[in-house]
Amino acid sequence: MQVLVRLDEKTYAKLEELSKALGISKAEILRRALREYLAKRESLTRSMKRLVKPKLTLKELEESYWVYGP
After folding, report:
1. Fewer Cβ in 10 A, N or C end of the chain?
2. Where are the domains of the chain?
3. Among 62, 18, 30, which Cα is nearest to 44's?
4. Rounded to an integer, what distance in angstroms lies between the CA atom of residue 38 and that of residue 51?
């Protein structure tokens, strides 16, 4: 499956530099970064669910802890 992602010039330049330094494609770097982000988010959400009453939805839980900003 393909996804189109738009990056600002500075972020793209850093991605390109990292790609060359590691010898892997920009796409692979983005795949790895997204996998890591999703794993951390899942872990954090599980931890938070243990701390609060279980009747909160995931959205309410994230909002109550401002996981992704206001």
Report:
1. N
2. 9-65
3. 62
4. 20
Residues 17 and 6 sit within 8 Å (Cβ to Cβ): no
65: Cα within 13 Å, side-chain hemisphere: 16
Q: Measured between alpha carbons, how far is 54 from 58 in angstroms, rounded to an integer?
A: 10
pLDDT given at position 57: 76
Contact (Cβ atoms closer than 8 angstroms) between residue 15 and residue 7: yes
CA 19 to CA 10: how far, in whole Å?
14
pTM of the prediction?
0.61
Distance separating alpha carbons of residues 62 and 64, to the nearest angstrom? 5
The 3-class secondary structure across 37-66, one letter per residue, is: HHHHHHHHHHHHHHHCCCCCCHHHHHHHHC
